[in-house]
Amino acid sequence: MTTRILPAVGDPDAARSLTTLLSQLPDAEPAGPVTDSTQLIDTLARLAGEALDELPEVVLVHERIGPVPALELIREVSLRFPSVGVVMITTDASPHLFADAMDSGARGLVTLPVGYEELANRVQAAAQWSTGVRRHLSSANDVFTGPGGTVVTVTGAKGGVGATVTAIQLALAAQASGHTVALVDMDLQTGDIASFLDVQFRRSLVDLALITDISPRVLADAVFSHSTGLALLLAPGEGERGEEVSDRSARQIVSALRSRYEIVVIDCGGQMNGANAAAIEMADTALLVTTPDVVAVRGAKRIVRMWERLQIRKAEETVTLVNRFTRNTEIQPPLIQKITGTRVAAVAVPANFKELQAAVDSGRLHELDAKSTVKQALWGLAGELGIVKPSATPKKGSALAKRNSGTFKNDRGSIGRPRRRRGGPADAEGTR
Questions:
Q1: Distances (CA, A) of 149 to 51, 263, 348
Q2: Which long-range contacts (CB under 8 A, 24 or more apart) does 12-20 make?
Q3: Model-level pTM?
């Protein structure tokens, strides 16, 4: 039987040496090496999306892979792709590292410099284990075998721009379309999803922070089942406890949620820390919410540049939502796109707090009137981001469908991108 092997090695010299050895292994089919953790996860997710059988039997992870540390990367691969055997390549063969690697989900260690016999033995053992797992999974329909659900993070350019309202409505839209949805409050110090949805809770993210193996039962105990059908994982009631949630535990929590829910929406608030930075890096879609004013747009630019410096997210991989949009504001979506270097969503949310005030004050944001232009815009955004099922997409020709498609011809009341008048500056055709 052919063994497909995917090396993850950042160092070019080590990659060439390893590829040469792999090509000498009997019945081995080595793929071209991936150079960083992001490329590895993306490659595995793409293959798993096609079919479980398309995944390689063995993944080799070099200890100096980045930007995610090797042990954390191994843990994420093991959680998201449980049928892949992971082998770590390292110069340190100490019992301590061996134990840490096994705890993270590795199936073996290969020491540097790599020897043929040791590599062959470890690859063969990992491949046999992978084959056995796949045989078991093929007969168990209730076991998760795919690349996982879609993760969407929502971050505010600064406090008070509407990130939490956006996250809640995106989650409600996805749930209403028939998806299983988890809504996570990762604004660890000042999170208020519980207040917006009138929830009294005991469990929080902190309860999962120190658990090394989050089983379905453990996850279910920490999640609050809301009357809307949303599964809520909330920020701690005592803000100072947010420090207990590390980037490593955040990765594990997000991976566990991804494996159990079709859509995971994470409110990251307006302040960056290790935990929500890890979530943003893992996200399929990173949404940045700003208002069309100088302070907020500067904050959005600052966040995008910080993400790039820390290798969390590239600007072109970020979607910016313009909230509280009015057609007569001086700062229009195209200018925000130019300043931040991100892609601005075709949907813009109108400035109409009066529609929200009663629902916010009563803690019943989930009962917001369906006729609300704010709700319609945010549910339209959910369609634009691809987190609602097609059956929930508005019919062609409806006002909301026009907003989703970004088409505003002969529709002066639409909310969205500005149009240019002949010989004049951009004039946004939005409503208040």
A1: 15, 5, 26
A2: 14/62, 14/89, 14/112, 17/113, 17/114, 18/60, 18/62, 18/89, 18/114
A3: 0.64
